[in-house]
Every structure is written in structure tokens, then in C-alpha cells.
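Supplementary Methods, section 5.1.

A reviewer requested that the exact input to the structure prediction be made available. We therefore reproduce it here, unchanged from the version used in the analyses.
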Amino acid sequence: MTAELVDTARLLVASGKGLLAMDESNSTCDRRFAEVGIPQTAEFRQRYRTLLITTPELGEAISGAILSDETIRQSAPDGRPFVSLLADRGMVPGIKVDRGTHALALHPGETVTEGLDVLGDRLREYATLGARFAKWRAVLAIGDGLPSLAAIAVNAHALARYAALCQACGIVPIVEPEVLMTGNHSSARSGAATETVLRAVFAALVEQEVALEAMILKPNMVLAGSDWPSEATAEMVATETLSCLLRTVPAVVAGVAFLSGGQSGPRAAERLDAINRRRSLHSSRAPWPLVFSFARAIQHPGLQIWQGDDANVAAAQAAVRHRALCSHAAIHGRYDDAMEGEAS
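The structure derived from this sequence is encoded cell-by-cell as follows.
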């Protein structure tokens, strides 16, 4: 079984493509619909997800798609299950399995991700529905005394238990410990917090005997807080991010798929491009594929164009395809601002 998991993990990250995260909860999806005046119903969520999955040539840039519990059970209007549509287009179906963050007792401002109860049963069902990989997100905030050692420890343990359960059920785990970019902190503070978190996560994964070669890490880039008065260049982000990963991530890990963490599509692509350009230098060579697992950074322009109107589907899909191809170019160090001008 481990050999099959390794093959799937490599297919997801070593193919020169990235992942499309379309695993928003219904409440999050509805909130984004409300922002652009789209009715917040299951029908419109299904129509939107059909738009994403059937985007022409999406498989050129996307190796797999992370679905929600609702989405993995849905079908296109012609009756074809979304899982089958993805597979037919050369994309691997995945599933988000955590049940969101909840306040961490005795630690104001911090959370723990829940969902381990009967997770094994849920994973086995998702496998029968066609899921070949899964995702679990932990959230760590930077602030006065944050993240605390308690928050780091409890979230690292949950991530490791989730990963172990995934592999026991024949599913590749994506491990996502996100250190938030919200706040007024420097990139140095972000790097230190990210390094501490990643060390704890990998210690917990090893303790739970997770096969690191059959898992994917989904980390944040090392960025200053959104309220920090100055912004680092893409080259500085690349240097600090790679330095952090090289100190913490074992070489055997199948790959690294960065989250966008609230960055715009162009900014996320620019920084991913700089990271991959930097890794090609001998002094900073990294042993893992460095790809993307973006949600809003790919979806947002298309959603704004669509606005729930079928007449806008083709234009919305063109925007989604463009953002996916820009992110794909960044994996190969070929993204350029000119790509944005060509699109417009």
C-alpha cells in the first residue's frame, strides 16, 4: 500500500503541476457568493463547481483538486459525478476531512482543528467515492505570546494522527500547518514561528510512524504580517521561505504545495516563481518539488466574472484557466508580469 501512496503523492507534486483547492465549506462558499450577489444555495454551489471542474485545459496546470464533503457527492448537470469528471480530465480527486477550527481551551486567540472522531470511517467512505488524497488544515496565529507551545503541540498531534489514519486507509495526506499572515509582525517573526511549527509537526509525524515519502506538506510562505508597514520583495520571500524549509523539512517528503494564504493570484504566482528560481541555484537547492495548492488565488477572478450567470461561464473559465496557467508557470520559474497584460 505504501508504494501506491508514494506513486499518488508523486503524481500530485512531481508532475510539474499544482493543486486546485476547491474545498471551501458551504458557509465559506456562501459568504463569497454573497459578496458578488450570487444566491447562496446548493444549486448555485453545484453550478459553480461544475464551472471550475470543466474549465477547458485545466488539467494542463492542475494535477488534483481538493473537494468538500458536499462536492465529492455532487454531479454535473448531465449526471456525471464530479469525481469522474476530474479523472477524465487527468486530475486526481481529493477531499478535505477536517471539521474546522475551534477555540483552544485556556488559550485565548488560539484554535485547534477538530474532526478526528470516526475519521477512519469517513476516510474509508471517501475512498469508495473516489478520493485518493486528503487535506487537514491547522491554523496558528502570530501575536503577543502566540503561537503558544500548547497550540503548536495540540495541532501538530492532530495533524499527525490524521496523516496516520489517511495512510492506514490508503489515502495520501496533505498536511497543512498554516501560520497566518494576518497581524503586525515582521517576516523574521513569521519565519521563526513557521520553523517552530514545522519542527513540531514533523516530530509528531515521525512519532506516529507516518511514511513521509507518501505525504505532502502544504505550508505558508514566510511573509510579514498584513499590517506590517513594509513589504518584502519576492526574492526576499523566496530566500526566507527556502531557508526555513531547508532547516525543517526532511528530504524524503514527497513534495511541498504552498498555500496562498490570502495573497492575490498575481502576488502568489510572483513569489512562487521567485522561490523556484531561487531553488535552482546550487547554494539553495531544495530536494522536493515546490508547487502550489491555491484556492482564491485561482478561483477569485472567475467567481467575480461569473456572478451566477450562465452567460458569463466562458469568460469566467478563461479567467480561472489563466490564473492556473500563471501558477503553473511559476512552478517552472517562467512566470512574468507580462502574462497578466496578455490576459487583459
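The longest strand covers residues 133-140. These observations are discussed further in the main text.
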